[in-house]
Every structure is written in structure tokens, then in C-alpha cells.
Amino acid sequence: MTDAIGLLALESLLSAEERAFADSVRRLVDDQVRPHVAEWYENGRAPVRELARELGKLGLLGAHLTGYGCAGVSAVAYGLSCLELEAGDSGVRSLVSVQGSLAMFAIWKYGSEEQKQQWLPRMAAGEAIGCFGLTEPDHGSDPAGMTTRAVRDGDDWLLSGTKMWITNAPVGELAVVWARIEEGITGFVVPLAEPGVTVNEIHHKMSLRASATGELVFDNVRLPASAQLPGARGLKAPLSCLTEARYGIVWGALGAARDCLDTAIRYVGTREQFGRPLAGFQLTQAKLADMALELQKGYLLALHLGRLADAGTLQPEQVSVGKLNNVREALKIARTCRTLLGANGISGEYPIMRHANNLESVLTYEGTSEVHQLVIGQKLTGLSAFA
């Protein structure tokens, strides 16, 4: 038997440095995530702060950023790290994506030098955890409708509003918060210990249970002028951060799919029915072949996007193609693998149902499938169908 990615020897397309980086992340996941993640998921709680420090030691937080203690790896290497992390659990990859591609990237791209020096080295080390406050209770796919506002009060700002479904919020030290001001939309770096900030953890989740998710409530929070991200002007700023995070998801979803398929291949090779292994039945092999085919295609797509990113030519609609395809196909793979395990497919002893449940969230966040379809449709036709 071969592993799922090994079918087309796709790792031969990687450089030695890229393979080595991916292998180091896989070892971390094998040592520190796999032995515990089923329990984290069942209990709905993971040691996020401790895990962040271990991820920081390996340079995984803001890995694709340069300077300020960041590793500065290539886009492909960063994508491979997302694949390996999500092969462990989507929640672990979400921790890294939100920290590095949303909160850190926003400060790195749009922040002042003072903000960068204050926050980025500590965030890269996992000593400070950040979150990204864009989604609101009534504004998810339409961030332009946000109602969170900041008004001037002398030299300060007063921030009021609510952000919902915010990964890392319950364990975070700071939030990059997007708000409407008189001139439009801008961002602020908000320490979560400030008076007027309330963080409510969201419980009873059926997905991403190894990830901390919360609500942020701002009640006339007083912020100095220096809290504003000076380079963030208009909705394009937060949307560019989402593009960064979506790129990681293109790779990450493949990790969940690979783990499901590898698990299923091992299982059907040893599980016997009607006197022979399940792997010897035609219908089983047809399912495995179809899933492996989609996994290879998704990997090639992710790698192509990574090479475009490293060349500096990657476009947002191209990331939408990757996110739409790879998450959709990963979810199909997880569901099909569940059928191959029969009743055992729902057991926490195996990772497949956990991955399938997690991918239901991945399918929705950072842009629903419908949003990405419309992004692609607009590029193809030149017409916006959002309104």
C-alpha cells in the first residue's frame, strides 16, 4: 500500500528545504497533537497557549512574514506547514492561520513601526496570541455592512460594537479590530485587557472543538491614536488579510483529507468481511481511487498557487478557486472515508468524523463556497452578482 500523496510522487515537486520544513511540522504534530487531540476535541478545550509557544519555537507563527522574529519561509513552505497542521486537526491550523495570516499580517502590512516592534516578535514566539475581529453577529459574508464604530474623542478613539465567531479570542492578548469611522473602514490594535472589552467564549460547538472561539464586545473602549493601523484604509485592507488566510486553507484542507484517506486505506487493509479484507472489494477500491484522484488534483492546485505567491503574482480570485475546490473535495473525501469505516467511522478512536465535522466550519469561514463562486463568476464575466 502507498500513502495518499505518494500515488503521483508529488513530493518530488518540492525542494529539499520545503520537504525538510514539512517533515519538521509533521514530527511536531505526531509528537504533540495526535496523542491528545481526540481528548481535546471531546472536552472542547485545548492547551492553546502552551501549544502556541511550541509552534513559535518551530517558527510556524507568521512563518511567511519577514523580520520581527518571523521565519520568512516561502509561500509553498508555509502552505505545507498548514497541510501538516490540519492533518492533526483543523483547530490547530486555525490557531496558526489566525495568528499569522490575519492578526500578525494585518500589523505587518498596515501597522506602524511602533506596533510592529511591540507585538510581532512576541506573537511570532507564541508569547502573545492575537485574534482578528471582522465578522459580526449580523454581518458575515457582507463585512461592508459592519456596525462596529469608532468615534474621535479628543486625541483618542472610542470603540463600540460586537464581533462574533472570533478564533483565539478567549485566549488572546490582543485583537485586530475593524471598525467604521467617519472616513470609512479602518483597523485598530486592541489589547483585550482594556476597560470596556468583554470576551465571551462560545461553547457547545459541534465543530472545531479543539479551537478557542469567542465573542468580542466593545463598550466605548478608549484607545489612543497610536492604536489605529495607519496603513489600513477601506475594506480592501481586511479583505487582503482574508486572502492570506484563505491561501493557508487551500493547503490545510488537503491535510485533513490526507489523514482521512490514509486512515481509511490502513483500515480496509486489515478489516475483513465475507472472508477477505475490505480493500479487496471493487466498490472499496473505486472509492479509494476517486478520493486519491481528487487529493492529487488539489495538491497540484495548491502547489501552483504557492508558486504564484512566491513569484508575487497570486490574485485573490485564484485563491478563491483553491479554497472552493480543496475544501469542498476534502469534505467529500472525509464523508466517503467515514463510510469505509462503517460504525467505527463515528468513533473518536479514528480521526475521520472529527475531520469531517471540522471541515464543515472550514467550508464556511474565510468566505463561504457561494462567496467564492461569485468571486470567480465576477472574474469570468466582469459583472458583480453580490448585490
TrEMBL record:
Offer one example of a GO biological process linked to this entry. fatty acid beta-oxidation using acyl-CoA dehydrogenase
Keywords, A to Z, come to:
FAD, Flavoprotein, Oxidoreductase, Transit peptide
Q: What class of enzyme is it?
A: oxidoreductase
Q: Which domain of life is it from?
A: Bacteria
What Pfam families does this protein map onto? Acyl-CoA_dh_1, Acyl-CoA_dh_M, Acyl-CoA_dh_N
Q: What is its EC number?
A: 1.3.8.6
Q: Which GO terms describe its molecular function?
A: fatty-acyl-CoA binding; flavin adenine dinucleotide binding; glutaryl-CoA dehydrogenase activity
SUPFAM superfamilies the record matches: Acyl-CoA dehydrogenase C-terminal domain-like, Acyl-CoA dehydrogenase NM domain-like
**Signal sequence bounds:** none
Q: Where is the Acyl-CoA dehydrogenase/oxidase C-terminal domain?
A: 233-380
Cofactors demanded by this protein? FAD
What region holds the Acyl-CoA oxidase/dehydrogenase middle domain?
131-221
Q: Where is the Acyl-CoA dehydrogenase/oxidase N-terminal domain?
A: 15-127
Per the similarity annotation, which family is this? Belongs to the acyl-CoA dehydrogenase family.
Which PANTHER family does the record cross-reference, listed alphabetically? Answer: GLUTARYL-COA DEHYDROGENASE, MITOCHONDRIAL
- Name of this chain's protein: Glutaryl-CoA dehydrogenase
**What does the organism's lineage look like at the top?**
Bacteria, Bacillati, Actinomycetota, Actinomycetes, Micromonosporales
